[in-house]
Design brief:
The chain is 41% helix and 10% strand. The chain is an alpha+beta fold and 268 residues long. The chain folds into 3 domains: 70 residues, no CATH class; 77 residues, Roll (Ubiquitin-like (UB roll)), CATH 3.10.20.30; 82 residues, DNA polymerase, domain 1 (Orthogonal Bundle). It has a 5-stranded mixed β-sheet with strand order 2-1-5-3-4, with helices on both faces. The structure holds FE2/S2 (inorganic) cluster (2 copies).
């Protein structure tokens, strides 16, 4: 058993294949030890190896940075042709690749964010054929012939989409990580309302366009989580674009003397 293990693994615990891969990547000496340290924490998949090695080698100026996917032979390659932000694109990807990874890793459209990668946070929301989809749960191969819009495709040149404008106006974000998904979701949500589609809390169905109550907007946006808790301002931004009316602020600056009076009242 021990002999067999030693046949397969060298002193660094590498198999012959892994050894060969490291040699091919030109990783030796210190950079190799540093790399193996990182791999120990990351797990030993060949793809992880490739990605970390790529970073190492690039940092050392040894190889040009090009997507690993383009150098690795694809096991189940499929060619997908679809429109992204109005432009016809064609990529060859592993049949298991998600739309999110295709957008971010292959098409350099990094606006769509990977939050949970499990369909639970909404950070990766994009619009496909006019409907919101979670790109982390959508296979790129299933997008053949579709028309996909990401956050990068909403503005027209220097002019922001009205929803983007409203998010800025109402400060509807803090860190901004969830914001591309929130905005894509909000844009598609308004189209759902125009089509008269009901949500779980819609009281009167059949209206086109549907008039969205605050609860209706909250319900329809419930798949988009904001860790910063910017929900009140997100709601205001969406309401303004939906109704076309400014959403009044519900707070006022304190007037001089008011705070003093409150302090005096409390100390009586
Ligand atoms: S990253 Fe897709 S839902 Fe969280
Ligand atoms: S603005 Fe930070 S997660 Fe939403």
């Amino acid at each position: 058993m021990t002999d067999h293990f030693e046949d397969l693994h060298d002193a660094e615990g590498l198999t012959a294949d892994e050894e060969k891969l490291l040699d091919e990547l030109g990783l030796e000496g210190e950079s190799r030890r540093r790399f193996l340290g990182q791999v120990g924490a990351a797990g030993f998949s060949v793809f992880a190896l490739q990605l970390i090695a790529e970073r190492e080698a690039h940092a050392a100026g040894e190889v040009p940075l090009e997507p690993a996917a383009e150098r690795l032979p694809l096991e189940n390659a499929v060619k997908v042709a679809f429109k992204v932000n109005g432009e016809q694109r064609s990529v060859t990807v592993d049949s298991r690749t998600t739309l999110l990874d295709t957008l971010r890793e292959r098409l350099d459209l990094t606006g769509s964010k990977k939050g949970c990668d499990h369909g639970q946070c909404g950070a990766c929301t994009v619009i496909a054929d006019g409907r919101r989809v979670l790109s982390c749960l959508t296979l790129a191969a299933a997008c053949e012939g579709k028309d996909v819009t990401t956050i990068e495709g909403l503005a027209k040149g220097e002019t922001l989409h009205p929803m983007q404008d409203a998010f800025v106006k109402y400060d509807a974000f803090q860190c901004g990580y969830c914001t591309p998904g929130q905005i894509c979701s909000a844009v598609a949500l308004l189209d759902e309302a125009k089509r008269g589609e009901a949500s779980y809390v819609t009281e009167t169905t059949g209206n086109r366009p549907a008039k969205l109550s605050d609860d209706d907007i909250r319900e329809r946006m419930s798949g988009n989580i904001c860790r910063c808790g910017a929900y009140p301002n997100i709601l205001k931004a969406i309401k303004e674009v939906h109704k076309g009316e400014e959403t009044a602020a519900t707070w006022n600056f304190a007037k001089p003397g008011l705070l003093d009076k409150e302090v005096d009242d409390e100390t009586v």
